[in-house]
Design brief:
Elements lengths: L10 H10 L9 H10 L3 H5 L3 H5 L6 H11 L4 H10 L3 E4 L7 H4 L7 E6 L9 E5 L6 H16 L3 E4 L5 H11 L4 E4 L13 H9 L3 E5 L11 H12 L2 E4 L7 H11 L3 E4 L10 H8 L4 E2 L3 H7 L19 H9 L5 E2 H8 L3 H13 L3 E4 L3 E4 L2
Parallel strand pairs: 3-4, 3-7, 4-5, 5-6, 7-8, 8-9
Antiparallel strand pairs: 1-2, 2-6, 10-12, 11-12
Helix pairs in contact: 1-6, 8-9, 11-12, 15-17
Length: 377
Amino acid sequence: MPGAATNFISDKELACWLALDQVKGTGISPRRVQQICEQLQGSANAWGATRTVLKYLPGLTEEAIDSFIARRESIDPGALLEAVRRAGVAAYPICHPYYPERLREIHDPPSVLYIKGVLRPEDLKWTVGVVGTRRPSAYGQKLAREFASALAESGVTIVSGMAVGIDSYAHRAALEGEGKTVAVLGCGPDQCYPTSNRPLYQMLVEEGRGAVVSEYFPGTKPEAWRFPARNRIISGLSQGVLVVEAGETSGALITARLAFEQNREVFAIPGRIDNPMSRGTNALIARSTARLCTDYKEILQELNWVSAGVERQVPTMVELYGREKEVFDLLSGEPTHFDHLCEQTGMPAGELSATLTMLELAGVVTRHPGDFYSRLR
């Protein structure tokens, strides 16, 4: 949803978040940037902080402060915001209600997530990462398609890295299953890599059937070192990760390890012992790092999604009356803050909170971080 971020954060604050995201490598980590913004009550204050103010913040060395100030002089926050909008990209700082809650919980979340395409909070309610080798056998191709399609048909969003091989088969199968899929890139979200996946990229960003996401600013070119780093985002967005087929040195094993460290469920499909592309997956199973998986329903069961009713259903009509209807009519697909609803309805905070809770229980409203609410239907 390009441009949506400004509904919840001023242009100045967003521009300063983009600028702060560009000071990587100055000795101030993304997590430290987030802490500084909290300590100084906003990204604009953090960006414009004087040397004296920065010296009193814990954990900042003189060298890091010098490097930050020098880097700051060459960055124009306003120009960065204009570039993001020209690229048709949405930028969600970690404080934004659209920033994925699951990703926010990992050890090193990106300060800003750049998104091209359509990615609503409800699209990430049930997510499974599907990863594997770039050189799959016919067996791996078949199972990647079957598992991803079946999961998508069950209402699960498929997350992968849009690489050739298993990633591409999983993305395409999710779309064929009329589901949603998210591609995490090792370059800017406006860059299609590999170029052979241009048709898939266009389906995601132009047809509203999914999204591409990245921690890298628009225009950032793909470089080999960026891809292992992006794997933590694939696993971070996912509740479980399925490794379909992977050799002993496959990057998919990095994703599996990161998922394990992030306390995600890891699943692996066993493969033939004489196939080099199955050695990694079989080793995951042998070490008990991953659960042996032979049916997509095992993933639903392990994640307790069968009992939760994850299977896609035709939405039912809910009759609303009185205060519930009044509040519901004020909401849309774009999150609205609780305080704004209080002003619009004139309701006491306690009554409004109870009304919103009833709407949540009815399955027609969802709550976002920061006390924002939006319609589910």
